[in-house]
């Protein structure tokens, strides 16, 4: 299904499109990895890294549940007629409106995200706190009705297991791991982030 970029005017959409495509890519890898925790043999040489990555952001949550929820977001990015509207005046990176979000998992949502200049201007396209990760964060608000209970990678890893499943940044940071060449190279836990998140607008 098409992704429509609106209100960009003279602003080129290439970098925004690249960030969106990268978000789809790492989200697919994240979903596959979550499912691999169930299906992979514990004797596999990569199982330890996959399991460690999963436990960091999901704790003891059921990997099948996590994989299903990641898959719902990925499916929405692939099949929804998503509208990406440019907001040149907002200082956050991206945002959605609460009224556009599903009321619960599996319910209808309005497929619209607002992108702001900070998403790609002076902001990492890859790695932790990436543009792609931010897009995934916002998509989980729309599709899964996630909350912004807490920000920062270390704090996300320390949430209770039920809260990990409904916190948008857990999806973001877990997915960003799949930009790495090897999961054994996971970054040290830190709460360093740029502070320009914005919860769904009323």
Can you offer a commentary on this structure?
- The structure is a single chain.
- With 202 residues, the protein is α/β, with parallel strands linked by helices.
- The chain has 7 helices and 4 strands; from the N terminus they run βαααβββαααα.
- A 4-stranded mixed beta sheet has the order 1-2-4-3, with helices on one face.
- α1 runs antiparallel to α3 and α4 packs across α7.
- The mean pLDDT is 85.
Termini gap: 28 Å
- The total of helices stands at 7
What share of residues is helical?
Answer: 40-55%
What's the total number of strands? 4
Radius of gyration: 16 Å
- Beta-sheet strand percentage? 5-15%
Strand order of the largest sheet: 1-2-4-3
Could you give a short account of the major beta sheet? 4 strands, mixed
Quick one: overall form? globular
Question: What structural class should be given to the helix and strand makeup?
Answer: alpha/beta
Q: What is the H/E order?
A: EHHHEEEHHHH
Average pLDDT taken over every residue? 85
Which spans have pLDDT < 50 for at least 5 consecutive residues? none
């Amino acid at each position: 299904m098409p992704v429509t970029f609106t209100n960009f005017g003279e602003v080129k959409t290439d970098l925004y499109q690249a960030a969106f495509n990268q978000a789809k890519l790492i989200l697919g890898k994240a979903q596959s990895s979550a499912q691999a925790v169930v299906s992979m043999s514990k004797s596999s040489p990569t199982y330890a890294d996959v399991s460690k990555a999963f436990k960091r952001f999901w704790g003891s949550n059921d990997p099948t549940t996590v994989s299903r929820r990641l898959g719902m977001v990925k499916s929405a990015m692939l099949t929804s007629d998503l509208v990406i509207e440019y907001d040149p005046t907002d200082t956050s990176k991206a945002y959605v409106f609460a009224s556009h979000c599903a009321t619960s998992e599996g319910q209808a949502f309005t497929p619209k995200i607002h992108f702001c200049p900070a998403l790609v201007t002076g902001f990492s396209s890859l790695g932790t706190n990436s543009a792609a990760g931010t897009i995934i964060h916002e998509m989980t608000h729309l599709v899964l009705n996630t909350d912004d209970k807490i920000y920062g990678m270390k704090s996300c890893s320390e949430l209770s297991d039920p809260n990990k499943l409904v916190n948008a940044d857990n999806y973001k940071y877990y997915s960003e791991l799949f930009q790495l060449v090897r999961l054994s190279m996971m970054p040290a836990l830190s709460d360093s982030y740029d502070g320009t998140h914005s919860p769904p607008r009323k």
